[in-house]
Amino acid sequence: MRTPRRAARLALLDPTGAIFMFRYDDAEAGIHWATPGGGLDPGESPRAGAVRELHEETGWTDVEAGELLCTWEHDFTRLGVPVRQHEHIYLAAGARREPTPEAVARHPEDRILGWRWWPPAEQADPYEPLWPPPLATLLAGPRGGPVDLGYLPVAPSHTP
C-alpha cells in the first residue's frame, strides 16, 4: 500500500522556451529530471505550494505560478516510504539564472543531483527520463487548458 501525497511543481520557462529542471535520484525510480516542486503543507493550495517549493529549492522569490499545465499521479519512494503522488504542474515565466548557494546547500536532503535549463530542441529526446513523461509534448503543443494525465508509471533509470 502506498501513502497518498499531494504535491505541486512549476514548469519555469525562460524567454527562449528552455525549461528549468532538477536531476533527482530516487531509490525506486532511479535518475530522472523534474521541475522544481514537492509536497504540499497541510491546508496549502497547490499553487501556493508550487511557489513555496520553487523558493526553497532555488532561492528565487520573484516567480509567480501561471496557468495549470497538467495534473498526474505516479509512484516513487520518498524517505524510504512508498508514495503515490498526485501533482499539479503550473506554468511560469522567468529569467535564466542559477539557484542561490543557500538553496543548493539543501539539495542533498531532497536527492537533487544537479540542474539545467533544457532547450526546447532537447526536451523531445531526453537522455534520462523527464517527469511527467509527456512533459515535452505538453510544452510543445497548443494549450487549451489543463490536461489530466491520470496515473503514469515511471520506468526506473539506471544511468550513472
Automatic annotation (TrEMBL):
Its cofactor is Mg(2+). PANTHER family: GDP-MANNOSE MANNOSYL HYDROLASE. The keyword Magnesium applies. The keyword ATP-binding does not apply. Residues 3-140 form the Nudix hydrolase domain. PROSITE patterns: NUDIX, NUDIX_BOX. Keywords: Hydrolase, Magnesium. It holds the Pfam family NUDIX. Belongs to the Nudix hydrolase family. This is Nudix hydrolase domain-containing protein.
